[in-house]
What does this fold into?
Amino acid sequence: MFYLNFGLIILAIAGLIILILLFPPRWLIAFLFPLICPGAVFAADTQNKVVALTIDDGPGLENSTQEILEVLTKNNAQATFFLISSNAEKNPQAVTAIIEKGHEIGNHMTEDEKTIALTQQAFQENLSQAHEILFNFAQQSIYYPRITWFRPGGGWGNAAMVNFAAKNYGYCTALGNIWPYDTFWGSSTQFSRFFILSNIRPGSIIILHDGGNCSKRGKQTVETLKLVLPELQKKGYQIVTLSTLYDK
It folds into this structure.
């Protein structure tokens, strides 16, 4: 009897964990995220049907970024692209296209690595280098967009990092509350569609990924957006940049 009860308890706990992963409650995110990255925003407090779309790790080194831009244009959607500066240098045409189509670029450091693993000095040098590279892209454009947002690699940073980004570059740090685990092995377009549409709420921040060095991720994002954007719009949602969501 003891083993039976113990087994049922384990199954119940496992079921609860699965439910939380599939349908993460906003109150839990509000509790956990200040521990993961103090001072970062993860969703806007609004009743209006507006959500921010963010694309990490771009630009893709193949043609995934261009395909993402085409889907966004077709669906009258805007996004904030958190760019890795080393990828930006390898595909400058994609960065120019992002800016010229009216989207927003944000700082996602110089390499695809966990920001929290860096020393504070390494972080500061890394962030500053990425800012200089992205700022040069912005400066060369006739649109001359502001670079307002920072997202740590891996979605994890400490208070000193967030404070440095804000004090020295005026960055707001953003995480997000809808991430369909699209960087995990075995992730799929259909699961991403299910996760986004099941968890979307006014003020949500969606996180998807461009190719970078992994072309599969960018292609999957293209297909996910083809499915999700029309359905979000049918639900009455407007898909915008982070700065539009936060009226910056």
